[in-house]
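Q: Please design a sequence for this.
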């Protein structure tokens, strides 16, 4: 049986760093983050691009990003993003994240299920509902 791998969405990374996830989700994320996990380059941009980020938050986000495998854009992700945008009218950042997960066969961990729920073949796990 193949081990499931995860792409951690920006909102979950923020909630994890802020320690506001439910206890069971914190425990699950601890084990995922202690192993191998992924983020999209879009997640990296979102995490570090907040205007009002504190120095402490930035340091924690950088540590999380350093521990992650950051997936950059490539032609497969770009082409999948285009199809997702056309078919589902998804916002560009969410389409890139979804395409990144689909191309790399990853489950997205996100609390924003509505951003991804219509995309066929995409697996999404809401940490608030486990």
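A: Design:
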């Amino acid at each position: 049986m193949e081990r499931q791998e995860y792409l951690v969405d920006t909102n979950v990374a923020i909630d994890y760093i802020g320690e506001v996830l439910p206890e069971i989700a914190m425990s699950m994320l601890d084990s995922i983050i202690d192993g191998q996990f992924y983020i999209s380059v879009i997640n990296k941009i979102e995490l570090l691009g907040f205007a009002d980020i504190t120095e402490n938050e930035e340091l924690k986000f950088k540590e999380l990003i350093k521990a992650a495998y950051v997936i950059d854009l490539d032609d497969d992700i770009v082409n999948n993003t285009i199809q997702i945008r056309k078919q589902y009218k998804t916002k560009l950042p969410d389409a890139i994240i979804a395409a990144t997960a689909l191309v790399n066969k990853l489950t997205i961990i996100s609390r924003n299920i509505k951003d991804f729920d219509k995309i066929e073949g995409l697996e999404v796990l809401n940490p608030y509902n486990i």
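Q: Thanks. Anything notable?
A: The helical segments are 10-17, 23-34, 41-48, 55-67, 75-88, 92-104. The mean pLDDT is 96.
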